[in-house]
Description:
The complex is a heterotrimer.
Chain A: H1 5-14, H2 23-27, H3 32-61, H4 71-106, H5 114-136, H6 161-189, H7 202-234, H8 247-281, H9 288-301, H10 317-345, H11 354-376, H12 379-385, H13 389-419, H14 425-451, H15 468-496, H16 536-544, H17 567-583, H18 585-588, H19 591-609
Helix pairs in contact in A: 3-4, 3-5, 3-15, 4-5, 4-6, 4-8, 4-13, 5-6, 5-17, 6-7, 6-17, 7-8, 7-9, 8-11, 8-13, 9-10, 10-11, 11-13, 11-14, 13-14, 14-15, 17-19
Chain B: H1 18-43, H2 49-77, H3 85-118
Helix pairs in contact in B: 1-2
Chain C: H1 18-44, E1 60-61, E2 67-68, H2 74-100, H3 103-133, H4 142-173, H5 182-208
Helix pairs in contact in C: 1-4, 1-5, 2-3, 2-5, 3-4, 4-5
Amino acid sequence: MATTALDQQRAHAAAGHAPPTGLWSWITTxxxxxxxxxxxxxxxSFFLLGGIEALLLRIQLGTPNNTFLDPETYNQLFxxxxxxxxxxxIMPLSAAFFNYIIPxxxxxxxxxxxxxxxxxxxxxxxxxxxxxxxxxFGAAPDTGWFGYANLTSKQYSPGLHxxxxxxxxxxxxVASLAAAVNFFTTVLNMRAPGMTLMRMPIFTWMSFITxxxxxxxxxVITVALILLMFDRFFGTNFYVPSAGGDPMLWQHLFWxxxxxxxxxxxxxxxxxxxxxxxxxxxxxxxxxxxMVFSGIFIAFLGFGVWSHHMFATGMGPxxxxxxxxxxxLIAIPTGVKIFNWLGTIWGGSIQYxxxxxxxxxxxxxxxxxxxSGVMHASxxxxxxxxxxxxxxxxxxxxxxxxxxxxLVAGAYYWWPKMFGRMLDEGLGKLHFWLMLxxxxxxxxxxxxxxxxxxxRRVYTYPEGLGFEQLNxxxxxxxxxxxxxxxxFLINIVKVWRGPRNAPADPxxxxxxEWSIPSPPQExxxxxxxxxxxxxxxxxxxxxxxxPLPEPERVSxxxxxxxxxxxxxxxxxxxxxxxMAGLMLIHxxxxxxxxxxxxxxFLGVFNWAFEPAG
Amino acid sequence: xxxxASHTPTQEHGHPTVGAYVRIGIVLFVLTALEVGLYxxxxxxxxxxxxxAIEPFFVPLLLLLSAVKFALVAMFYxxxxxxxxxxxxxxxxxxxxxxxxxxxLVVLEAYxxxxxxxx
Amino acid sequence: MTDTAHAVHLETxxxxxxxxxxxxxxxGSECLFFATLISNYLVHKETWLTGPGPFxxxxxxxxxxxxxxxxxxxxxVTLGTALLLFSSLFVVLALANAQRGNRKGLLLxxxxxxxxxxxxxxxxxxxxxxxxxKGLTLKTNLFGGSFFVLTxxxxxxxxxxxxxxxxxxxxxxxxxxxxxxxxxxxxxxxxWHFVDVVWIVIFPVVYLIK
Lengths: 613, 119, 210
């Protein structure tokens, strides 16, 4: 039965279940869908900010001996670009999908701990604002996103720059850990009846593995930052060589976190691509079990390779050899995934829609990134490549060519479900081509520049070294890349003004989220579905011999929903205030921290004792 | 299956009695006394030749004693022995990673310091 | 959705309570936190003997001739260790009483747990003050830095545990922990045992191994 959007809204209101609107409803929301949208909007904003930072860098590097940016500003910009893109863009964009999609894919009404979920979002937002507040003080972090000791010591970085970075990351770490506990529990405990682990959608699987990585990796960087904090604020010498400390310790601790972190960045995108390719090839995912186990293997092995970021630090031949071999080993399960994706498309009936464009782009770009990565795995080769633009090329191919292409594919794929509107196909494909061309123009030449000796993290370069033309090409490419996102924004705005009339299942997809209205009603499923296999919707359509009827919007009477709450936000403010208090310890003494702790305790106690509903 | 919001001892199989808990507590105390005793025997003020003889085994023995205490608290006080295996998995897997981390860091840094001193 | 006081018992895919699974997950993550702190302590052990003193087990003479005696006092710490171990026993007994609906027993044993916890924290505070008087602060040397950060963070975890258990004691006093809500105590107890288990590792590594 075809209904207009207005009919639906009227029926909804008549049943007494109008979705709450207004700012307060967003501030107190505990609905995973709203929290997902909050994450997505906030993360995308930070992505644009990080992109502007990158464009400024590219303007500076476009010509030799340029004076557009002075060295100090340059250092702040590249540090913030990296930190923003990793912690404030890619991770929370993934979180947006974890939030919106995982409960829908497993047939749940919400996550295990809705208020903890809201808490994670608010902490993320406040952490991102804290980090960027540094710009207002002229003290943006300037020691790289990896903050190597002992450049970060009080002696060599006396200002507030490193303090903002250090404490900002601690705040963000709390958000990630809380969310990881939440999603880990949700995936294990809240699956629909009949959905065994090996029947879960592959995006949920990859996201689940990502939560495990978050739980195990973040504590390590938390300690690394604590030790730095004690060095900077309380006079310890953990990373100070002249007092017996060891800057190498920082590198080890950072990369023990840092390497699992890159898998945290890529696994969700792997999951998205593994969802998109089957739907748009009209074929089930090739080798589901292999995809699951290769994901587990990559994550597990990812804890054993960290020192491949340290081949130039003189660890000795035994350490170098071990880490080289372990790193090369990780290429194997990754290769398995790539072949399985190809096997999925092979012989399929390809639907040339925007999501699969980005998914195919992902595969191509990620392969290039993976190849340069394997080249880094060899210590002698890496001694040539490290600290050059070759590395910059590698990680942009995997993080942009990989994660961002994958996340954008997810955006186009799930946009109708989340917002009830189809994004424009023409603009989507234009976005894709501009992004692909712009991306490759920007980052491919970096391989060449790097091997020809252009170092990283330099604010300018002299003439006559042969770097000029390629740098200019890259700068032009970066603006084409930026334009592609302008096209994306135009698409969003254009479609926003249109009718909210996307069907429940516009792509003829396989998983549970497509069985409910677009967008879903607050409680997701009127009746918790029973699952009998992978790809439950395809199975249902097969049995029926045709498409499923459009699901009706129901009144939702008798369906119990958790109460909204503002205590998660209060608790998040408490944590941020504590960190701010720590930063101002010389001006305020312990009172800033104490005030923050008081707010935190107030928030947590009220949260614990209020009725959850 | 109901979520187990409340356990009563009769619902679970093999739930330890109060007496068992107290006995385990005493064992933990004794093990601690053994740890300290071992320290005194090896390094204490009245340690003799026997102490010096045992010195190479001191660390492994000590870690073994702590491992037993750890296991007792985890298995019985934290109920891992009676509970669903998933809890044990969620605890043990990070412990494995943690052990690898400690060993890896200590080895790498020891090598690094030795290297640095050798010049 | 979460299992709450008056809500219908939610069926979960594993049959296990969400909050219990969550606290174990958190504990798993905390293993890495403490492992990293312990690694930091062990790593710096290689270098701190170059001075300045004092040190845990060794006497050291400064170039100026000042003698620093070993600073660790085993009897006090052993007492603290024993107290923490007994507190784990007491909280288990408290939980057993909660599950049987014996409010008096619950209050008694939970109170005993709290006392032991408070004594442990008191012992740590005393020990820290004592060390400072003997010339060891965070800044003095890498032993000081590593020791205070490791045991300090452990002590903070104990303190937060004491606050958590104290809140539950007050709830129990008001009759708000009937057998149906004993899971609330079980979850806090799991956290408490974990804090004890971490100390089981710290005690030999810091205090007994030279």
